[in-house]
Amino acid sequence: MRRESVVFLIGGTFLGLIVGWMIGSQQGTPPAAPTAAAAPAAQPQAPAAPPVDVQRATELEQTARSQPSNASVRAELGNLYFNAERFDQALPWYEQAQKLDPRDINVSTDLGVCYYYTNQPDRALQQFDHSLSIDPKHVKTLFNQGIVLAFGKQDLKGAEQAWQRVVELAPNSEEGRRAKQGLEGLKAGHAGDGRG
């Protein structure tokens, strides 16, 4: 996956969505949480995902067939599809890579993100739990966990806890800055309800 990680695919719009969701929930009937497919579409100003390099994908698939125990080629295929935002196509490659190398935290976290974007928030959270069992301080996992808790499960308290942990661990990182924005959004959303 790109070094920026998935958090930046949705990171730019999550603050507004959190505030909007919270404000809507305070007005009676909460609006539906964004679905996995809707979250990226809510970001019209974002650059389009790069197309899949079909030639590279074909080469990697041939290598994967000839090397059934090679986790890294499967992770690279997952990354190729992930970067093109074809999460459903990235899923099987990340699952295979994870099975071959269950301690690869980046593959594990990317797999969790793919589950979220294919409308499987519970599986995403389970996968993030696996990532955090490898490294409880992995800020990209914690940040993504907060996003799935907020949008996939409408668990704003859980999202707040995950993002607070990101801020504690890496306050000056990109994830830390975005987690602070999320926390500020949560606080602003609750300012008028006596909890903020």
What does this structure look like?
- It is a single chain.
- It contains 10 helices and no strands.
- The chain is mainly α.
- The longest helix has 20 residues, at 7-26.
- The model is unreliable at 3-12 and 18-44 (pLDDT under 50).
Please give the largest β-sheet: none
Give the helix level as a range of percent. 55-70%
Number of strands: 0
What's the CATH class label? Mainly Alpha
End-to-end distance: 37 Å
Class of secondary structure makeup: mainly alpha
Low-confidence stretches: 3-12, 18-44
Under CATH, the homologous superfamily reads Tetratricopeptide repeat domain
Topology-level CATH name: Serine Threonine Protein Phosphatase 5, Tetratricopeptide repeat
Mean pLDDT comes to 81
> DSSP strand (E) fraction?
under 5%
- Number of helical runs? 10
Q: What's the CATH architecture name?
A: Alpha Horseshoe
Shape: elongated
The radius of gyration over CA amounts to 17 Å
Secondary-structure element string:
HHHHHHHHHH
What is this structure, in a nutshell?
The chain has 196 residues and is mainly α. It has a single domain (7-21, 52-191), classed as Alpha Horseshoe (Serine Threonine Protein Phosphatase 5, Tetratricopeptide repeat), CATH 1.25.40.
